[in-house]
Amino acid sequence: MTNIKAISIFPELYEPFTHVGVMKMAIEKGILDFEAVDLRNYTHDRHHTTDDVPFGGGAGMVFLPGPLLEALEAIDSPSGSWLKIGVAPQGDRLTQKMAEDLACEERLLFVAGRYEGIDERVMEKLDVAISIGDIVLSGGEIATIEIIDAVTRLLPGATGNAASTGEESFSSGLLEYPQYTRPRELEGETVPEVLVSGHHANIAKWRREEALRRTLIRRPDLLSNFDLTEQDRQYLRGLVADLRGIID
């Protein structure tokens, strides 16, 4: 079983996600144990204060280090038994490979930032910081849920079809090929003939080429780290030549 905890001042934000989708299935199957931890439980003043103004001035508030450190020490005991993860804009950008690595861990402890962030002295005690991208959110809970969802669906038995998780965008290193279902014709648009041909080799070839084409056009940066076959390279060279001809 994988254990995941998330420290937050709004633990109720996580509650709906434990009752639907992949998190619900994983919890019911005993694959995932999840707990949202209320940071206010680790405060000691009557107002349950969790934040204060930043040193040096400026807008916004910063999480106080005291309650966070107390929460981390209470949960991560003995020290190092949990992988401690800060969810913050300055973290490493989330990738599928990162999600796969996290799915191999037994205990994940997330700290969701809010306001202007988390005191740097706390950040330095975390094992890793993760960002979901170049975007500003009102709080780290939404980003944390995204990471937990990406991790949970990789846990063995968490989804109904294990094969599907290995065929989706980024799992192979490429964007996923286009998908179609019934009806075969919709508003004059028909499903590519190869997909209804029953010829599995041709279908596989079409899907590979479409994944390469989509990746080249939308995320060419992914190709630099992808192990291309010679057949892939020939297809891409032809595609680039065609695109240049259209542009020229």
Walk me through the structure.
By secondary structure, the chain is α/β, with parallel strands linked by helices. It folds into two domains: 2-152, SPOUT methyltransferase, trefoil knot domain (Alpha/beta knot), CATH 3.40.1280; 185-247, Orthogonal Bundle (Trp Operon Repressor, Chain A), CATH 1.10.1270. 34% of the residues lie in helices and 17% in strands. It is built from eight helices and nine strands. The chain has helices at residues 21-28, 65-75, 96-102, 120-123, 140-152, 162-165, 200-218, 230-247; strands spanning 2-8, 32-38, 51-52, 62-63, 83-93, 107-112, 128-131, 185-186, 189-190. Strands 2-1-6-5-7 form a five-stranded parallel sheet. Strand 8 (185-186) and strand 9 form a beta hairpin. It is elongated, with a radius of gyration of 23 Å.
Q: What is the structure about, briefly put?
A:
The chain has helices at 21-28, 65-75, 96-102, 120-123, 140-152, 162-165, 200-218, 230-247; strands spanning 2-8, 32-38, 51-52, 62-63, 83-93, 107-112, 128-131, 185-186, 189-190.
Range of strand content: 15-25%
Compute the separation of the termini in Å.
57 Å
**Which bin fits the share of residues in helices?**
25-40%
Number of domains: 2
Oligomer: single chain
* Rounded radius of gyration (Å): 23 Å
